[in-house]
Each structure stands twice: as structure tokens, then as C-alpha cells.
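pinging the channel bc i need a second pair of eyes. not urgent but kinda urgent?? the chain im working w is below, pasted from the shared doc
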Amino acid sequence: MRVAVVEAPIGSGRHWAERARLLDGQGFDALLVPDTLWTPSPFPALAAAAAVTESIRLRTWVAAAPLRTAAALTREARALQSLSDGRFELGIGPGRPDAEAEAARLGARWGSAAERIAAVEASAAAVRAGVDPTPEVVVSAAGPRMLSAAGRVADRVALALGPTATEADLVDAVERARELCGPAMTFTQSLVGIGETLPSYLARTGGPTLAELQALGSSGLLPGDPGLAADVLRARGERLGIVEVTVPGELSEAFAPVLARLRR
């Protein structure tokens, strides 16, 4: 089971470097940086992290295909792959629903849903052809058309599920994805909390409370006991092919005991 931390740089470059070194030393598998206009651009942020780390993988989370041409994305990916000694991974998707305004600010054409899905395929193909060594490609997908496209270009699918998704919702998403991507596809699941610890963005954005997540039986909320949490993740890996989970950066310390159990 791979464990990745999702985090954007905050504060100075020195603080970001220290944070990247800490996560690398704690044994997390990957550092994932969002691609939004209200956070630093992921490519320079990941390049800075690459310079001060040794083993942690470095991934865009997720690069919005409409915001860059396939050629521009390949150029950035090639540079980061070189600077990281081959630790770059491409996380890519058709763009968040609210990213259309960001595309307008950048002067980029948003396009129809079909055009954005085609952009994901073209960009993934260009990066595969133009970057050496070829990075792993993780595609964020939910709808049937994006899942079908992911089956053609992705090494793994990131299940686009919200924090209130139940265990039944998770199982349904995996089954639907396997129908469209093929039975051998593996998956990434985004976690939202552990025990009683939630990331602050949920409160800031009016998201579900801890009590609501507990009442729903959110699949993204792990038990507070590290051993039980590790058992849940191992079972999902064996049963559902979920081989990676992502953890909000604020939860990395709370998740460290679970990581230790998974490494045994």
C-alpha cells in the first residue's frame, strides 16, 4: 500500500524544503502538489522538493489538461523528471468543475467535456513519448467517458469520490471503473480523516463535520486505532485493488503510526 501526501507550499522556500525533507524521512511514498491558481504552480514546487529529497516520488495532483498544451506539459514534465532523477509522476485529469474560471484567467480554452477528455489522452500520450524515463500516469476519473479514456492511458485511476462516499460507494466506483478500464486496473483513494482528526479545509469550505462523516460511515475516514486503520487499508488493497491512498498534508503526523504499521 502506497501512501501519498497532498500538500501545497506555504510560506518560504526554506519552510517548503524542510517540509519535503520531513515527509521523505518519514517514509511517505509520494508528495502530491495541487494544480490551482490559488496555490503555487506544482512544477517549480516539486522541483524545489526534488532538490532536497532522496526517495519520495513527486506528482502533480492533478494537472488540469485544459490549462496547458500537451507540448507545454511535456516540457515541464521532462525538466522535472531530469531534476528529480526519475522520481516524477504525472497526475492528470480534465479539470475540476470550478477550474473553468481559472482557464479563462490564463487565456486557455476550456472546451467541452469531450474536448477536455481528449486533452487528457493527448497530454498523457505526449508525456509518455517525450519523457525519459517514462513517468507513471495516474488519471483522476469519475464519469464513464473519462474512465474509458483512463483505461487507455493510465497506469492507475484516482477514484474521484467526495468525503461523504460510503464503503458501498467505494465498492460501486471500483466495479464501475473495472468494467470500463479493465479488470487489471488499480486505484488510488483519497482519505479525508483518521479518528477524530480532519483537515481544516472541510470547515473552511462548509464541508461535512466529523459527526456527519461518522454517521454516514465515510470510507475516507479511517479508524483512530493505527492497527485497525492499517487492516482496513490492507483489506481494500486485496479486495478492491486500491494500492495507494492520499492523505491531506495536515494529517501526515496523525497518519504516521498507520504508515509504520503498513511497513511491517
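so The radius of gyration is 18 Å. and The longest strand covers residues 242-248. — does that match what u expected or am i reading it wrong
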